[in-house]
Amino acid sequence: MARQRENILGFDDLNIGDEWESAGRTITETDVVIFAGLSGDFNALHVDHARAKRGPFGKPVAHGLLGLAISSGLASHAPRVDTLAFLAVLEWRFLRPVAFGDTVRVVSTVESIEPQSRGRRALVTWRRQLWNQHDQMVQEGRTQTLVRARASSAPADSPAISAETVVRETDGER
């Protein structure tokens, strides 16, 4: 039996318009409580069942930023890309609430690819959409990542990429 390796894509494996859908993930009350603790956002809308019941959604809902964080995690596996850095959230919209028990998935689409550093890496702009189990888009936006070239396509004399190089190059020094 042959051993399979994980297929990690370089920017040169991507094409504008390519689209991937992640696996689903169910949002739990525990997720919301842990996120409230991490973020310090204990708004009654998220953590107080009695008050949230009288609120605009009639029940507690997840933090919008928890949805963004989960979408980032789900997108890191669909597709699996050799990402050097998450650079920007260009825009993000919160369209519908995410309730406890909702199962969400991310659809990621390549919008643009801008090779940099003599083709060793590229700035990739993504359209991300977070969908619930009812096929309703609950969040959407655009993000940018710095993605390494496929290992076999990088020039043989290319030096290793350090975190300092990534920061310097993304700050405009090329």
The CATH topology, please? Thiol Ester Dehydrase, Chain A
Question: How does the helix and strand content classify structurally?
Answer: alpha+beta
Spans of at least 5 consecutive residues whose pLDDT stays below 50 are none
Continuous helix count: 5
Main sheet?
Answer: 6 strands, antiparallel
CATH architecture: Roll
Mean pLDDT: 89
Q: How many structural domains does the protein architecture include? A: 1
Distance between the termini: 46 Å
| CATH class bucket | Alpha Beta
Tally of DSSP β-strands: 6
The fraction of residues in strands falls at 25-35%
Structure in words:
The chain has a single domain, classed as Thiol Ester Dehydrase, Chain A (Roll). The model has no long low-confidence stretch (mean pLDDT 89). With 174 residues, it is of the alpha+beta class. Strands 1, 2, 3, 4, 5 and 6 form a six-stranded antiparallel sheet that branches. 23% of the residues lie in helices and 31% in strands. It has helices at 29-39, 44-47, 49-53, 64-75, 163-170; strands at residues 19-21, 25-26, 83-94, 103-116, 121-131, 137-148.
